[in-house]
Design a protein that fits this description.
Blueprint (H helix, E strand, L loop, with lengths): L7 E5 L5 E5 L8 E3 L6 E5 L2 H7 L2 H20 L16 H4 L5
Antiparallel strand pairs: 1-2, 1-4, 3-4
The structure holds zinc ion (ZN).
Zinc ion binds next to loops.
């Protein structure tokens, strides 16, 4: 399985039924059997959807954005300044943990 959303393709059969199906870009067939009449339904090229999902530049941008944000998430936890001895349970995050 891949980490990103599988593109959605639209098919239309000779009887006029139209339906959507998910395929990876490498596996999408030119035609699939219609679920209603079992005739071969041909894939319709939908420019808008393909423009969103078929762009490698978009995926590169997405992964770049993610890798830039992850370090902030990991190191972004607020560090409580310690002012003298404190009980361990004053941290609200610790109170959500199950008691031993
Ligand atoms: Zn059909």
């Amino acid at each position: 399985m891949r980490g990103f959303t599988v593109p959605l393709y639209t098919f239309k059969c000779p009887a006029g039924d139209q339906f959507d199906a998910h395929f990876s870009m490498a596996e999408v067939p030119a035609a699939v059997d219609c679920p209603d009449c079992t005739q071969p339904a041909r894939r319709i090229i939908t420019g808008v959807r393909l423009a969103q999902t078929n762009s490698s530049a978009y995926q590169l941008l997405d992964s770049t954005k993610r890798s830039a944000h992850e370090p902030d998430v990991v190191t972004g936890l607020p560090a409580k300044p310690r002012s003298g001895p404190q009980p361990v349970t004053t941290n609200p995050l610790h109170q959500k943990l199950p008691k031993p």
